[in-house]
Amino acid sequence: xxxxxxxxxxxxxxxxxxxxxxxxxxxxxxxxxxxxxxxxxxxxxxxxxxxxxxxxxxxxxxxxxxxxxxxxxxxxxxxxxxxxxxxxxxxxxxxxxxxxxxxxxxxxxxxxxxxxxxxxxxxxxxxxxxxxxxxxxxxxxxxxxxxxxxxxxxxxxxxxxxxxxxxxxxxxxxxxxxxxxxxxxxxxxxxxxxxxxxxxxxxxxxxxxxxxxxxxxxxxxxxxxxxxxxxxxxxxxxxxxxxxxxxxxxxxxxxxxxxxxxxxxxxxxxxxxxxxxxxxx
Length: 281
What we know:
This protein is of the alpha/beta class. Helix content is 47%, strand content 17%.
């Protein structure tokens, strides 16, 4: 009876020991598998992060060409900007050359007829809706000739002209002939520029945000933060500011915001937003 009891006791101990050894091996294997899985996931996560395309923003500054306030401040910004130069003004050619040498892109800031506003605000050489086809064509060609290094064009004012199918067609035809893209400043929500550009095969991009519709540094910084809101839904944003009355406010706000904003997105040239099917100038 005692011998049988001892045998059962030894057998039970052996069974328990075997179970413990099995549990140790299984747990070790599971932990090893988890360790491998963690490494795999970490490497995958790192790869995704490293290949992610950053959000991009193009800053366009309008109204160069008349030695306006903030001109030097804008030219000295340490980010790429697009300098929109009004033709036939006192410093049009100087500002275009200055921007080009500073590494900025240059476009023609083409005066075009608005629904409202003083005619004197347009400047010389404006495209009006009552002009003949030939007169419009001549004005656009002359404006391009007057702004050195221009690779594109955008509208100065122009709420009326950009909603006139005939006018838009002629302007874009000249742009196509001269190899220029067009930035629609979107002064009119019913603009026909994008639609006509698609029909003619002219590269067209559109403004998303005005930075200085109110001339104060606080407002410009508020608008710069709105870029981040736009980028929550889109990968790219075009924002337009101005030299002139708001020039120093706008330039200072941009300069002070660059360090923080550069952590959120990449400042790029406007031409990088052109449709990929179209050759960049």
